Amino acid sequence: MTTQSTLPFKRKGLSSVITNMISGSAIATASLAFSATALAEESSDVKEKKKSEVEVILVSGFKQSLNAATTLKKGTTVVADVISAEDIGKFPDQNLAESLQRITGVQVARNRGEGRSITVRGLNPDFTRVQFNGRSLPSAGSGRSFDFTILPSDFVHSLQVYKSPSADMEEGGLSATVNVETLKPLSLGERSFVVSAKAIQEENSGETTPYLSALYNDTFADDSVGVSFGVHFDEREVESHFYEAFGLINWPEAWNGQDYNFDGDTDDTFRYDAATGFAMFKEERKRTTLFNTLQWRPTDDLDLSLETLYSKFETDGIKPLNSFRWVNIAGGAGVTGSSIVADPLGGSDGYTNRLQVDGVDLRNSTRHNDEKDELLSVSLSGEYTLSDNLLTKAELSYAKSERETTALALNVIGRPHAFFQYREDLSAIADHGFVEGGPDPLAPELFNSVGVNGDYKKPTEDENIDFRLDFDYYTDYELSDNLTITNVEFGIKLSQKEKFLGHQFINIGSQENIEKFAELLGETYDPNSVEGGSFSAANYMTLHSPSNYLDGFGNGQFVTSWLSADMDKVLSKVSAEQLAAIQLDVGGPGQIEVKENVTAAYFKVNFDGMDTKLRGNFGVRVVQTKQESAGNIPDLSTIRFDGGGVTSVDSSESSMTRDYTEVLPSLNIAYDVTDDVIVRFAAARVMSRPTLQVLSPATQINANVQSINSSNPNVDPFIADQIDLSFEWYFAEAGMVSFAPFMKSIDSFIVNSRKDEQHTVTDLDGNNPRTLNFSRFAPDNGRGSDMYGFELNWLQPLDEIIEGFGFTANFTFVDADDIQLDESGPLLPLEGLSRTSYNLVAYYETETFGARFAYNYRDQFTTQEMNYFNDGRYIKSYSQLDFSASYDISEDSSVIFEVLNLTDEVTVETNSIGINRGVEDVGKRFTLGFRTKF
């Protein structure tokens, strides 16, 4: 049921929320308790059961970490994979996402060369539930996916990837659930102190930065009290090199009656890139993390833990652009050479081979991005043995992620004469250059300023409050001679999630505001300039000539030196507060707030039989979701637009409420064919919720590309039925071969619908009305998709050939039906789906030396099929080779050396017909460090 109100909901205090959650838990728990006691005809001692569970085993070395991981995998009932630390504070990779990509079916999405999020079996990162010690952490990003850059790997003991769920696992992992697990201090049971110090050098920037961490563990009071404390700091000086294109625009009218294809008429419809640009991104990243666990076990029956995680991630970056807007021309236009080639899509229209124009809009602005992320997570948990056969666990946790973003740019325009020309290899960067005899693009006097815009102290908050209560009842209830129920698990979880995306935007774009801006800077404002009112930007331009710029990609004609507006020069004369005083837009269509309350109850039965060769579980999870969303609905009759790209519109607040309930059954079976061969079967219904940003009623307008982006609070969650099989052979220590076919039938995908509409816009001062064509994009539930595929995994020690040598290899194939909004809509490939991916790791270890080569490959995938210009966006296949080595200079100390992206690979984007849409080059990264354990 959906209701609508006119006022956004109000936030509740933390204390009242926790009180409501705990009081609600008592009712739900009472309704579940009686079902377990019916199985109590026979019982066994819960303490003995706990003693028989797998304990934490600390190992050292990469091969031993593989052995520990396969041991844990072999003991699970569900279909899962595990990565284990090589030693205390020594994970195989510095970045957790980079480690996860070594697992079959897992692919990593990178940001500035560092793993940020993961996809599992080809599905969007938002379909993967990432948990920290069994609970979800908030993320200040726009989606639900976890940002791995905020959490270092130093404190992690293992990564567990669950591909088939059980009823006790939290819903949300439609593709998988990943649990990041740290050590409990009493599990380690000894005093230890591990210190790491590393130096990281970036190839593109040439800068060397520190990476420091320390992890301390100790026990007291006859091993009844344990404490772990970790501190970490690292810094990166990243420099990425870019080429960007923004899609092929259909331009139905020739400029000034030009005959572009020389066929005698001026009614040509042709296609070309609306804008192209060269850029570099220089960014300083700082990450500080504190981690603490206090554990108290006063008796054998009671175990209490208090855990705290704090992480601060700061980025300070600039992105100087050399950007050509080919749709905004001040002078004439002309085409030389063979201008039109056949449209590969089969239509009568073509795309230009070469475009040469006078007075192109050269938008050479530098956006300065200053972002601060803070994450705080606190949890209090307890485990208590109520009787010989009944165990209860409870946890109350609170977590909050906050982000503040300031991203300002001085907007400038130059008007040189320029051209671009596609190369024979369309996936290569198009040739770009300036026409001889035209204005000098390296003359600061060429550029005029048309204002400042960007986020100013924009707040983002994501807050979670969770309470869970679980019971585990042990029994030996015989269903038959060959089948016994070993224990029954049941419990509830109550969660509240709030997400707030604020909007604070400095918007200096109207002629009145530009004049105020010029006066503030002491510059002369010219109301009759070619831009309709501006001032000279000559005093604020900076020359950029990045070394080795895109030298690893093709042999085309690039623009490798350019002038770009420098916001720092502006801020050296005036403050950001003074700019905000001219015009600061607060709230409006860019601001949303969403709240989600979830109540979940589960019942799970564990069984074994056939002399313990057969084991498994079945159960059901019932989930009720209540959501409230608030946002701003714009009045589309009030669109005001400046050619510089600034848009404003009147809006009014609106809120929506909605609730729904899902029933999620699951079954997992494992059968030991022999001591070393296991067959698994799993079937389940799984779900994931849409991103909270999609659930807002807000609508945003971008008049620069003439698009309207609406959210939709009425979209349904993603529901899928899945079947997994796994055949596993554990033939040696750290040796295994497995084959895991799977199938997933997804009921519905959220698809962006698109429709064209016309709206009247004016300048920012309300003058010069004209009608523009807009494309409205809005999410809606479309048709589902059937996915199927298989995973192959091979771990092979080769000690019989060369002592200490071995390799791991895995391969994943995934295919899926195209999706569409309805039967009449276009077929769209599934975003993020790579049909094939694989990993190869070769390792060599002795008692003192270890080395690894790790190769990762991911096939092409699409990220945005229904984009502004409807020509698609594809990331071409990507591979990366990494190297790491360590040498033990003593029993407890070692030297570490690593190289990421050894072969200097670049990321390449194309559109649906193969024309290049972008290149990113992040270069290699070198690490040299020292680690010691006391």
Automatic annotation (TrEMBL):
It is a multi-pass membrane protein. GO terms for cellular component: cell outer membrane. Keywords: Cell outer membrane, Membrane, Signal, TonB box, Transmembrane, Transmembrane beta strand, Transport. Residues 1-40 form the signal peptide. PROSITE patterns: TONB_DEPENDENT_REC_3. Residues 457-902 form the TonB-dependent receptor-like beta-barrel domain. It is found in: Cell outer membrane. Residues 75-171 form the TonB-dependent receptor plug domain. It comes from the Bacteria. Pfam families: Plug, TonB_dep_Rec_b-barrel. Belongs to the TonB-dependent receptor family. This is TonB-dependent receptor.
